[in-house]
Amino acid sequence: DGMGNLRVTKKGIRLEGISEFLLPLYVKEIHSRKDSPLVLQSDRNVTVNARNHMGQLTGQLTVGADAVEALCKRFEVRASEGGKVLFSADEDEIVIGADRLKVTGTEGAVFGHSVETPHIRAEPSQDLKLESPTRSLVMEAPRGVQVNAAAGDLKATCRKELHLQSTEGEV
Prior knowledge:
Blueprint: E1 2-3, E2 6-9, E3 12-15, E4 46-51, E5 57-63, E6 68-71, E7 74-78, E8 85-90, E9 94-96
Antiparallel strand pairs: 1-2, 2-3, 4-5, 5-6, 7-8, 8-9
């Protein structure tokens, strides 16, 4: 029938109460009771490993005191409703799939290389500032760039020369 908190049932093994495992635990599934959360606790960290049929590590999730780390080919965060990918990362790219990306830091967003987007705007009642403190700021698009200040001034400043160039029309 089992021992202590451990019971053998037709569906597998039932563990009730707090239990301690001193060596690795290998299981196909772990479920909590419907009215209780599943708690995994450790003095250092909790690590979940996924292995392929040959026993090779294919994925690892570690929850530690200072960080949550994922080691895998692709990491995804999905919305609870509909399963839409909100964030994904692999070796080649990071994708943010939310309808809106909001950067709340006081320094804004800093990009090491080019940025490609169809729309940049500030929050309502906030100024939008595009700045390149040590290099030039270039905006280009195959079918034109539109800069619009619907409610306020448009200001462009530079240290040396300001160039507005049209290859086929007028400035």
